[in-house]
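step=encode ok
step=design start
structure_in=
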């Protein structure tokens, strides 16, 4: 094989195509890169492949050395927990091997490799491919020989490739070389597989032990929950079977009530109570359980905890849970007004919270309101009234007002179209929509203005919030009698 630079120009080169045998012309002009062309015939499909393949073999036969890629064995497997474990070994690092001699296409027990390199009694078989890699049958035969064999890929080289690129590929590069057979690889792979199997087995044993321990813990936790539930149910049953007189005596002992029953522990409902127990009993028990001597502990009292406890502790008859919860929430609001609890800011995504600020039986002293404070409060009330939307019918501009929730709300399907129309025209539709979706008759702040104050932090004008609630029939604007 020759390069165009190694021969005379034109037909004087005396070259023939290694693929089809046709006469070649050496093109050595000044405009195009020097190359060979077929003389008076079309180039065949295999001509370029045969030329590159022959040139690659010639390079190796002339140089008698090449760089070999490293040989590595990796096995992997998964444990029962889904963890992937690896075992790896390096049989040979990347290195250069120099031969004493090389021969082309020497038959070796039914296999004819492209080149065989010899070094003493050792052999290295070299296969080079352009279009077709070594198939499984030939790979099996190479494995039976127990001789090291590599494959060199030439498929990305084209007919214009010079000897320098081919020489670089065959001698120096390792990225396009792969082992067809490496002595000892299968034995090493079996050894790694056995070691990996042992690791996986140990990991599975540990995983099963952890699962068993976790299952035992879950069973123990569930048993404890069941036992606690049964104790609560038994205690609740005993408590409900206890007479009113004994319940009162027990509360007097716990709270230290010697004489008259405190008025704030006997707040009667405006109508028929949803709780069949007398008000003094369930309110006194609630006070003892959640408030008495628990002030300034940093503990946040959640409304849901109180509601659940009252619903489980006392008989509510056939009343719905919503009605019971409404009565308990009203009583918690009353305790807040008395100064026992401090209501935390309303959060539409959490249950209403309180801090116990006064945990003694004697109620906190009322703070005297000075004339200056009263005047400031009147000014603030007037400011809120001025900041709201247009007055409700029958309310003049000079009258003071306050907001309160309506006792009954319209059904959502009755106001859905109107709400959609309002939100469509508002620049703060996402916030107003979130507010409407989070409040209900049984889950809302006591003061409607708290909703406006929350959204005001997000840039929604307070008057727009109150206007939406008013238009949908959720709030009322009440007249405030002028102070004398």
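sequence_out=
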């Amino acid at each position: 094989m020759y390069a165009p630079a190694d021969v005379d120009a034109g037909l004087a080169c005396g070259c023939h195509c290694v693929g089809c045998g046709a006469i070649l012309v050496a093109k050595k002009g000044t405009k195009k890169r020097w190359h060979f062309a077929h003389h008076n015939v079309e180039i065949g499909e295999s001509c370029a492949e045969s030329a590159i393949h022959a040139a690659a073999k010639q390079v190796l036969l002339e140089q008698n050395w090449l760089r070999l890629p490293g040989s590595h064995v990796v096995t992997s497997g998964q444990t029962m927990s889904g963890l992937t474990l690896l075992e790896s070994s390096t049989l040979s690092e990347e290195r250069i091997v120099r031969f004493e001699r090389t021969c082309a296409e020497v038959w070796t027990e039914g296999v004819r490799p492209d080149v065989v390199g010899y070094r003493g009694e050792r052999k290295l078989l070299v296969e080079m491919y352009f279009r077709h890699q070594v198939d499984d049958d030939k790979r099996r035969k190479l494995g039976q020989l127990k001789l090291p064999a590599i494959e060199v890929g030439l498929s990305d080289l084209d007919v214009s490739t010079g000897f320098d690129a081919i020489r670089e590929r065959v001698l120096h590069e390792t990225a396009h070389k792969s082992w067809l057979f490496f002595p000892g690889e299968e034995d090493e792979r079996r050894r790694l597989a056995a070691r990996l199997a042992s690791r996986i087995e140990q990991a599975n044993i540990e995983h099963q032990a952890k699962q068993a321990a976790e299952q035992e813990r879950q069973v123990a936790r569930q048993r404890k929950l069941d036992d606690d539930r049964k104790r609560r149910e038994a205690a609740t049953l005993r408590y409900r079977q206890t007479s009113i007189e004994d319940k009162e005596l027990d509360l007097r002992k716990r709270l230290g009530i010697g004489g008259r029953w405190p008025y704030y522990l006997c707040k009667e409902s405006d109508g028929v109570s949803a709780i069949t127990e007398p008000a003094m009993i369930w309110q006194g028990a609630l006070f003892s359980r959640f408030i008495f001597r628990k002030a300034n502990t940093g503990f946040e009292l959640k409304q849901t905890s109180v509601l659940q406890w009252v619903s489980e502790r006392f008989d509510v008859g056939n009343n719905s849970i919503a009605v019971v919860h409404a009565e308990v929430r009203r009583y918690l609001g009353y305790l807040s007004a008395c100064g026992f609890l401090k209501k935390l800011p309303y959060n539409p995504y959490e249950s209403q919270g309180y801090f116990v600020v006064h945990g003694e039986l004697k109620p906190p002293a009322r703070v005297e309101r000075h004339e200056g404070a009263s005047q400031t409060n009147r000014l603030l009330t007037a400011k809120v009234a001025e900041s709201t939307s247009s007055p409700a019918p029958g309310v003049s501009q000079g009258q003071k007002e306050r907001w309160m929730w309506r006792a009954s709300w319209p059904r959502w399907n009755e106001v859905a179209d109107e709400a959609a129309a309002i939100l469509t025209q508002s620049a703060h539709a996402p916030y107003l929509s979130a507010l409407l979706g989070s409040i209900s008759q049984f889950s809302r702040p006591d003061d409607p203005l708290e909703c406006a104050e929350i959204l005001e932090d997000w840039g929604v004008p307070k008057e727009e919030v109150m206007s939406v609630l008013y238009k949908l029939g959720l709030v009322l604007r009440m007249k405030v009698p002028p102070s004398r």
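step=design ok
step=annotate ok -> The CA atoms of residues 243 and 249 lie 10 Å apart.
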